[in-house]
Amino acid sequence: MSDYGTELLRRQLNDLAKNPIDLVSVGLVDDSNLYDWEILVMGPDGTLFEGGFFKARLVFPHDFPNMPPTMTFTSEMWHPNVYEDGKVCISILHPPGEDAFNSQETAEERWRPILGVEQILVSVISMLSDPNDESPANLDAAVMWRNDKPAFKKKVRQIVRKSQEDC
User: Fold this and answer.
1) Catalytic residue selected from 8, 77, 88, 89
2) Catalytic site residue 167?
3) What's the pTM value of the predicted model, to 2 decimals?
């Protein structure tokens, strides 16, 4: 764990405490470890996730900021861009550079060391508002999103209710 990465995370956590992002609350899982954050994402108004309270973990690698963190919802989530285990799959969380196996995203869309936690969290809020079913992490959710919107909406309403009960 680099001194630079540790200091950068300390600064970003303090910045988010002073200037919070709408719909997101952040904190440390353990005050002695700046590399493991707990996140609470509130479902954006006007989306299927509205009213939900979704818990997640943001875990930073030892070589942060050169490599991106991993974000995993610990609350149940039904979304084309979230794996069944809760891991979020969006471009900003993918390692830097081109990916020969994924022509859907450019290097500019992927992680770069100049990006920070705020950009990640804004991207996750955007993901909830506008799922990308072209490159799904959860194929079943993507197929349901495309082919059976009423069933998708029903399933998301169920997880929103569950998230409200769990908070």
Assistant:
1) 89
2) no
3) 0.90
